[in-house]
Design goal:
The chain is an alpha/beta fold. It has two domains: about 1-170 and about 355-365, Rossmann fold (3-Layer(aba) Sandwich), CATH 3.40.50; about 170-350, Glycogen Phosphorylase B (Rossmann fold, 3-Layer(aba) Sandwich), CATH 3.40.50.2000. The protein is built from 16 helices and twelve strands. Strand 8, helix 10 (about 225-235) and strand 9 form a beta-alpha-beta unit. Helix 2 (about 45-60) runs antiparallel to helix 3, helix 3 packs across helix 4 and helix 9 packs across helix 14 (about 320-330). The protein is elongated and about 65 Å long.
């Protein structure tokens, strides 16, 4: 079966789940990408556009040429020419962009929501009319957390077409670790943006240091809050205990998890409503067997089992987060190893290939047009 994956952000380092769909779905995958959704791997859309623009130039000069309509026609023609049977759009706004071409080509569209696109109030307001049509015309809609499913239904998505399919974690890529060998090392991985609240992670760690002065925090990621967080660490007097690594590769993150005792993330709802889907880094940490201390925020609640695979606190409550960090850092080795084993088992049971990629593949097949 031929599937077109449509994404404006294909290849972005923080969007690893999209690349996972491209690499691991069991179909022939073709991609349509770029900000305007006018790029494909063989460059055929742009070559076609250049050719057609030459003979359409006089029409444009007369003021009767519609660029948006022209792009939709090219997209639809490409989808049909390539024998696409179903389209998977990554993020809601992308689904709204490709919907006209899908309708013109007579192809079913599955729209995969991931986070801000379902929660950010500005994005929801900007896309109100587009989402209304998208919800009406999409063959299926995917949310990556139970709370996102509820959110999508609350903003107009038909409940019978919204499917909960979390992200996939390949345990073969994340070997089991022994967190008791991680000393007092704490790891945090994520973009330095408001909804990740790295400043609150720093405040929590600062409190934890009062009980465990030998603890160390490694933070990987970049974003607009990186500079302010460096200054906050200086202001708190904890700069020597914190390492800011900047953006790091997936391989680096895997190795960093091997040397840590604990993973932390203080996700919150941003001022504009922006929220997480299900943080991939938390899934990967639990897959390794790292205990996680995080917040009761969207999909995190689906992943972390309170007291069994980690601990949760309320958003903004950095003091409770600090106390839970201390609990894990001081935990006896046998208790820590039991928590680690529980984390890996939970990932295997709820977030393995069968529960995620296979379900997404089945959903695509169930709505596809053409030979099955």
């Amino acid at each position: 079966m031929r599937v077109a994956i449509v994404s404006q952000v294909l290849g972005t380092y923080s969007e690893t789940f999209i690349q996972t769909h491209v690499d691991r779905l069991p179909y022939e995958i073709l991609t349509l990408h770029g900000v305007a959704l006018d790029q494909v791997s063989d460059g055929s859309l742009r070559k076609e556009a250049l050719f057609e623009r030459l003979w359409r130039y006089p029409i444009r000069k007369m003021g009767t040429f519609n660029d948006a309509k022209f792009l939709v026609q090219r997209q639809a023609r490409w989808l049909k020419k390539k024998g696409i049977e179903v389209v998977l759009a990554e993020y809601g706004p992308t689904g709204a962009m490709i919907l006209p071409a899908c309708l013109q080509a007579g192809l079913p569209l599955v729209t995969h929501f991931h986070g801000y696109d379902a929660h950010n109030r500005e994005a929801l307001a900007e896309n109100r009319e587009n989402y209304s049509r998208l919800f009406a015309e999409s063959a299926a809609i995917v949310g990556v957390s139970q709370s996102m499913v509820r959110q999508l239904v609350s903003v107009g998505a038909p409940r019978d077409r919204v499917h909960y399919i979390p992200y996939f974690v390949d345990q073969a890529q994340f070997g089991a670790i022994d967190p008791s060998r991680g000393g007092k090392s704490v790891l945090s991985v994520g973009r330095f943006v408001e909804k990740k609240a790295p400043h609150l992670t720093l405040l929590a760690f600062s409190e934890a240091l009062k009980s465990i002065p030998e603890a160390r925090l490694e933070m990987a990621g970049e974003g607009p809050l990186l500079g302010p967080c460096r200054w906050l660490a200086k202001a708190l007097g904890i700069s020597e205990a914190v390492v800011f690594h900047g953006a790091k590769s997936h391989d680096w993150v895997q190795k960093a998890m091997q040397r840590a005792r604990l993973f932390v993330q203080h996700s919150v709802e941003a001022g504009n409503g922006d929220s997480e889907g299900t943080p991939v880094a938390i899934l990967e940490a639990q897959c390794c067997g790292l205990p996680v201390v995080a917040t009761r925020h969207t999909g995190i609640c689906d992943v972390v089992a309170e007291g069994q695979t980690g601990f949760l606190c309320e958003e903004g409550d950095y003091r409770t987060m600090a106390a839970k960090m201390v609990d894990v850092l001081q935990m006896k080795d046998d208790e820590l190893i039991a928590m680690s084993n529980s984390a890996r088992q939970r990932i295997r049971t709820l977030f393995g290939k069968e529960q995620t990629l296979d379900r997404l593949a089945g959903l695509l097949r169930s709505v596809a047009r053409g030979p099955q």
